[in-house]
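Please think about what follows:
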Amino acid sequence: MNRQQDRQLMVSQKGLVLADQIVISGSAFATNLLLARGLGLAEYGQFSAVILAQLFLLSVQQAVGSGIYQVTWPGLWVVVQKPYTNGLFWLQAVGLTVLLSVCAAIYALLPTGFIPFTSQFLVPAALATGLFLFQDFLRKTLLVQQRAGQAMLIDGLTNGSQLVLLLAFQLTENLSLLTALWIIGLTFLPSVILGIIWLKPGAFRWAHCQLVWQKHRDQGGWMLLSAITQWLAGNFFIVAAGWSLGAAALGALRLAQYIFGLLNVGLQALESYVVPRAAQLAQTPKKLMAYLRSVLLKSLIGLLPILILLTLAAEPILTLAGGSDYRAFGYVMYGLSAVYVLVLSGFPIRIILRVRLLNRHYFAGYALATGFSLATASWLITRYGLSGVLTGLFFTQAILISYWLLILHRNGLFTWKSFTLFSVRPIRPE
């Protein structure tokens, strides 16, 4: 294969990866809007609790498994790639089986009133979670192997059939929480089977698992700690709200987060564009600062009007998305707007940390934010309810950004004068 063919392959792969991400993000957004309206506040809150558990386990899986695979597999000899993939496949299968078995045992041993879910709810929730995690592993493995078309097909198969079935049950007024969980779980099954067929894992071999252990043992512990800390910093107040305030409050909060999640899609796309260009300027701080000022200014121009719209039309938007039951929670949109102003303002700061390889301080910032969340969540939620949750999310983000700014200042990479939007003529993105 010549250089031109290599370039064409990479371009097509990038397009397919982007299309795959659009399928996943769009389907998740549509599914949550459909369920928020179809299930009502309380049941949608219980569904959101399942999603939070899935996202936590996904961050763990990414840290110790697929995340390391993404950076290790391309650098291996071809003869080693297949055994390495097989070993990770079987460890993934065994790990998920053990995890679900342990969860079932814990559920069986705990007092009846300790966990507010019935076994009837637990079975489809566990099935959906296990198959979701395995399907995500398969799609990321295919993406790493530059088989993005196959990854997009299994994602399209699951998400398309999931949306069609959920919509059909809602139109016939037969949609319930249990029905939704069974549909979501079972629609992962065809894509998991198809992904396994395409991946063609070999028979279980202990030597392959040992190979994975050799490749992952040095990075896995640190990445797991970082993933858990980062997840807790962003989600502990959400989990605590569901536990303390009930499913209805959690449902309202999660629906509002999904609406704001559209901004996240834009920020993620912007970050994938900005980071490589910022990395090229990492050794010339003045040019880096000027470039990031330009990015910040343009992102503010693009996203602030959306934030203003979400704030001014909070109640109608929330009601349109979920129904009249959500109207009373319009103030949640106000609080999240303030949080996202901080997120947007901290975007260039996070980029500087990444391109200057200040990863230890990147983790330390999340550790501080997690400590604040663990220390204050109970008091804020008990005293102020859902408003306390929003306050906690705001200060968590503020602590994170403040610490990162302090580190950049100590390293001579940041002064307020050097980072004001108009102090130096901005450099246009290349």
Q: What stands out?
A: The CA atoms of residues 295 and 301 lie 10 Å apart. Residues 416-430 have pLDDT under 50 and may be disordered. DSSP finds 15 helices and no strands in the chain. The two ends are 29 Å apart (CA to CA).
